[in-house]
Amino acid sequence: MEQVQSVQILLPQQCKHCGEQMPERPETVLGEPHRHQVTELPRIEAFIIEYRRPSVLCGACHKSSCAPLPAEVQGQFGPQLTALMAYWTVVCRLPRRLVEGMLADVLGITLSLGSTQKAWEEVSAAVQTPYQELQQQLPQEKVLNVDETGWRTNGDKRWLWVLVASQFVFYWVSIHRSTEVLVTLLGAVFRGILCSDRYSVYGKYHQGRRQMCWAHLKRALLALMELRSLRAQRFGRDALALVARMFRLWHRFRGDLHDRRGQPRPLDRQELLRRSIPLQKKLFQLAEAHLDDRDKDVRNLARALFTQAEHLYIFLEEEGVEPTNNSAERTLRTAVQWRKICFGNRSRQGEWAVARLLTVVQTCKLQQRPVLSYLTQAVICYRRGSTPPSLLHKSA
Predict the structure, then answer these.
(1) With bands split at pLDDT 50, 70 and 90, how would you rate the model's confidence at 131?
(2) Which H or E run includes 80?
(3) pLDDT band of 396, cuts 50, 70, 90
(4) Residue 395 has pLDDT above 60, yes or no
């Protein structure tokens, strides 16, 4: 009831039992009324403010002066409308032509495609400082998940990288898919734990602690079960059985499984490690037995399990490390969906805008901040020449 803005009383016009006409002002009302709430939008229309600045004559020098415009209302569009254009494009993944049409149809605002582009560029510039702040924080993170996908600029090949920390997400567009990108973002040496798939660049760059994605390994093992030799199927089946037992322990540690009585039986970290060691040894021995297998795919996968064993079980030891790279893959999926709509960028400035706005939007979602409110505040600060709110978590 606290959110109800309007109450309408509906009185019966006639008795539903005998058909007698009911009085307009009933004398007797029984009990509490039946309630039915309907959520509706008010009439949506643009709110136009006209700033009038009369010339005022000075009594001392007899010259006229006008008051300056407030910094946040420079241009034709206010901060919230400017932020909304970027919000529709990034969060709702609407083409700019469609944004132009929605503004005309919903708000009655007629503007050119160039105005939409200008608003997009302004919001990108407004979030530059918090974006750079996140970039500077990357090398200090204890755990980072990283992934990359293809991108386009004027038809030329690019790569969109994403790095996921515990409290923020960071995107970067580059012409490279090499260690050069990781050196640029994380420095020559990254002292934290890097979580990734089996792409060789990550192993070449990071010689420290690295968690390889078990989801990729599981898919590779499942592939061995399809249209392969009996020996390959046996290897895949035996490895998958060990993986399933390992992850049952992991889910019990996370509190996701229950015993037969339905009571939670989570494991602590120490017990998780103790129970996983025999499974680790069995998987290592299984891989060792197939290092020279006649089947190339079996051989390659066995060598990966054998030589990369130290990078498979970090999640069992360290808080904040997951066994899969799903967090990075999920955040890339949003960018991939956007790429299918916009077909990439046309300039380096467009690449920066994509990276900055995706970073801000996904970080706000991770931190459960209202995206549109943050973008609006960033535009206000940008126009006033002040620093926009930081996206760094207080504990970072």
Answers:
(1) very high
(2) helix 79-90
(3) very low
(4) no
CA distance 313 to 280: 8
Q: 262: alpha, beta or left, given left = phi > 0 and alpha = psi -120 to 50?
A: left
Beta-strand ranges (E) seen in 197-342 are 210-212
Secondary element (H or E) of residue 375? helix 371-384
Bridge partners, 212 (sequence order): 196
Report residue 225 as tokens: 């079960």
- Plot region of 224 (φ>0 → left; ψ -120 to 50 → alpha; else → beta): alpha
Task: State the number of CA atoms in the 13 A half-sphere of 139 facing the CB.
Answer: 12
C-beta of residue 242 within 8 angstroms of C-beta of residue 248: no
Give 149-205 pLDDT, tens digit per residue.
Answer: 998 888 889 999 999 999 999 999 999 999 999 999 999 999 999 999 989 999 999
For the chain, how many helices (H) and strands (E)?
Answer: 14, 7
Rama region for 155: left / alpha / beta (φ>0; ψ in -120 to 50; rest):
left
Q: Bridge partners of 148?
A: 161
> How many CB atoms are closer than 10 A to CB 263?
7
Amino acid letter, residue 302: A
pLDDT in tens, 24-39: 788 777 888 888 888 8
Which residues lie closer than 8 Å to 183 by C-beta, 6 or more apart?
205
> What stretches of the chain adopt beta strand conformation (E)?
56-57, 64-65, 143-153, 156-164, 169-174, 193-196, 210-212
What is this structure's pTM? Answer: 0.84
Give 41 or 1, the one with higher predicted confidence.
41
CA distances from 165 to 91, 170, 195, 257, 319 (A): 20, 8, 10, 27, 13
The more confidently predicted of residues 44 and 374 is: 374
Sheet strand arrangement including 169-174: 169-174, 156-164, 143-153, 193-196, 210-212
